[in-house]
């Protein structure tokens, strides 16, 4: 069983056909959409704000998901919102940001508070997206701090959906293995 923990009486909510690895930890106000997956050693804390993960998205090994609390200076804080068909690579840090649909976040990237990543974007491995930045739809972004590199070509755009589908298929294998125990 996955480690799903309540925080102040609020428990993580899972959609249909979701896979959560038993070594992942999800705490508090988190919703995971249908057919999504959360892989080994992911830590997600929806304690001082909420986390929403869309449909057919995957959060890969060792990633950390967190939020920013509400305050007098920031009455809404910064929740973490992840759209549909998003691939979050290994060891990624997502903190109080908003990711649209069909996004690939490369391994060990960091995306900070109040960032908005529009639909159909690739963020290169190791990139750092500083607070408040908006990443425009249809581009590759790389670097630390991140900068717009070039428009995505048609093969890269198609890969965004294919990457999500690869993890939908993989989590189905894992769900079969879990159900046979």
From TrEMBL:
Keywords linked to the UniProt accession: Transferase
GO molecular function: transferase activity
InterPro entries xref list: Hexapep (IPR001451), LbH_gamma_CA-like (IPR047324), Transf_Hexapept/Carb_Anhydrase (IPR050484), Trimer_LpxA-like_sf (IPR011004)
Alphabetized Pfam families for the sequence: Hexapep
Name listed for the protein in its UniProt record: Carbonic anhydrase or acetyltransferase, isoleucine patch superfamily
Organism: Pseudidiomarina planktonica
């Amino acid at each position: 069983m996955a480690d799903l923990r309540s925080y102040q009486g609020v428990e993580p909510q899972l959609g249909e056909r979701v896979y959560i690895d038993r070594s992942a930890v999800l705490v508090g106000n988190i919703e995971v959409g249908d057919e999504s997956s959360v892989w080994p050693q992911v830590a997600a804390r929806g304690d001082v704000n909420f986390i929403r993960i869309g449909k057919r998205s995957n959060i890969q090994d060792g990633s950390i998901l967190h939020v920013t609390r509400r305050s007098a200076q920031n009455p809404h804080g910064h929740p973490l919102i992840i759209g549909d068909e998003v691939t979050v690579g290994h060891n990624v840090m997502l903190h109080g940001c908003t990711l649209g649909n069909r996004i690939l976040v490369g391994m060990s990237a960091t995306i900070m508070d109040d960032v908005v990543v529009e639909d159909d974007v690739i963020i290169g491995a190791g990139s750092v997206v500083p607070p408040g930045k908006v990443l425009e739809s249809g581009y590759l972004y790389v670097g630390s701090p991140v900068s717009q590199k070039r428009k995505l070509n048609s093969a890269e755009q198609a890969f965004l959906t294919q990457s999500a589908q690869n993890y939908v298929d993989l989590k189905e294998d894992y769900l079969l293995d879990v159900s046979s125990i």
